[in-house]
Amino acid sequence: MISVGSGSAGAVLANRLSKDPSNSVLLLEAGRECPSLADVPVAPAFLLQTESDWSYKTEPQHACCSIFKDKAMRWPSGKCFGGTSSINYMAYCRGNRHDYDDWAKKGCTGWSYRDVLPYFIKSENNLNEKNRKSGYHGTQGELYVSDVNTTLGSAVFVAAAKELNYPVIDVNGKKQLGVTETHQATVYRGHRWSTARAFLDPVQSRSNLHIADNAHVHRVIIENGRAVGVEMERGGKVIVVKAKKEVILSAGAIGSPQILLLSGIGPKAHLDSLGIPVVADLPVGENLQDHTFVFVDYYTNVTLGHSIETLESIETQLKYSLLGQGPLTMTGLAEGIGFFRTKWQQDNSADIQLHMLWILIGHTKKVDSRMVYNINPESWKPMEKAHEGKLGFSVMVTLLRPRSRGVLQLRSKDPRDQPIIDPKYFSAERDIDVYEEDGATSKVREGQY
Q1: pLDDT at position 447
Q2: Is there a contact between 190 and 320 (Cβ–Cβ < 8 Å)?
């Protein structure tokens, strides 16, 4: 078997498939090992726009993104072992049961919540004693999940939710509406626990598992309607590798459709325009959906989190290096999480998610946010000036169920060219209506985000 991609799905597949000694598995990863900095939970932003990130960027957006250069947003995606699980913010959230059940109702047999829950449990080793006894979490799996080191800000976030009569829950448990008192992440003993660490590292010695890094797959080779291998580039050479049994694409939400299109599987009109022979006329790359978010800033008269100076102190560095403890074990900047339903959501599931960040977003000067997020410096200056000398926190308001639909297409026949990514943010007015109820619409309508 050939498995393309070693990310959140690919690493698991390589582990499970190679467990059967009768299988011979070749795992192809376009990147390589992440730097040691990736192990530090507080440091995801420092990994963006590096060789561990594909550094995708969207097409210019018409209804938003005015503060971004060329009105285009960056889309981070892991290009290393563990994929995006090696560069993300590690929040452990499985999704909503209603989504899985809806997929099953529409014909995806085996994808109902009841069907997938045993696999979540199988892969998980949850270190929270209450969660371990709930029946919704695993205790013997490879993927460690633990409570995040939090600040006063998390306690304030939960207290505010209780005051408004929102339930305090395990968002991966029986219900998802409410806020979580113990924000959980894929962290173990103060270090990021990516899928590479969890599923690849323990089995690299298996004689039937072969792992190749810096292997950029160009296309799937299809003969007589069957996938028989892949064409890839490694070390400056284009190589063809054949598979006796099957080819598995787990190259991510961008990589997999790009490879399919380059292989001749996609909309005929699009493939014809690039001179790619059509193998199957299918809507690959269509129905692209993405979650937008808006930062809402609040000023306080007390410090809720840690200062940048605290994070950089010798004491903090030593505490992390020697004990795996302290502020550096926090997952980036976020710690409080809640799921909420607006009047626009018909079923009993959330359409808004809140992330409470223990710092004002404009204060993260040590991370060049303008570069990381492609923000125009002239747009960033007013935010920095407004926050200067002030204490506070930010809340990230995330739209979970966008009505807007975008598209992913090839830019050219060259697999080295990044694809066209056009999410068409806010092309559906309903998405703004949801923000309006949440109180964030003024920023969206004014084009600030």
Answers
A1: 41
A2: yes
Residue 132 identity (one-letter amino acid): R
The pTM (predicted TM-score) of the whole model is 0.93
The Cα–Cα gap between 78 and 185 comes to 18
Comparing CA positions, the residue from 327, 309, 330 lying closest to residue 319 is 327
Q: Choose the weakest-confidence range: 178-192, 315-329, 357-371.
A: 357-371
Angle among Cα 368, 369, 370 to the nearest 5 degrees reads: 90
Closest CA to 393 of 420, 364, 369: 364
Determine the 3-state secondary structure of 289 from DSSP: coil
Residue type for position 322:
L
pLDDT in tens, 270-290: 999 999 999 999 999 999 999
Residues β-bridged to residue 395: 296, 356
Q: Do residues 366 and 42 touch, judged by C-beta distance below 8 A?
A: no
Q: Which amino acid would we find at residue 128?
A: N
For every residue of 339-398, DSSP letters joined together read EE--TT--SSS-SEEEEEESS-GGG-TTS-HHHHTTB-HHHHHHHHHHHTT-EEEEEEEE
Q: How far apart are CA 246 and CA 317, in angstroms?
A: 47
Cβ-contact 447, 308 below 8 angstroms: no
For residues 381 and 28, the model is more confident at 28
Q: What is the DSSP letter of 234?
A: E
Among candidate residues 19, 30, 27, the one with its CA nearest the CA of residue 1: 27
Give tens-digit pLDDT for 369-410: 656 678 888 887 887 788 888 888 888 999 999 999 999 999
Strands 406-409, 25-28: pairing is unpaired
The two tokens of residue 256 are 């997999």
Pair of tokens at residue 270: 């699009």
**215 dihedral zone (left: phi>0; alpha: psi -120 to 50; beta):** beta
302 token code pair: 């007390």
- The answer to whether the Cα torsion of 33, 8, 290, 183 is positive or negative is negative
Contact 331, 185 (CB under 8 A): yes
- How many other C-beta atoms are found inside a 10 Å radius of the C-beta of residue 195? 29
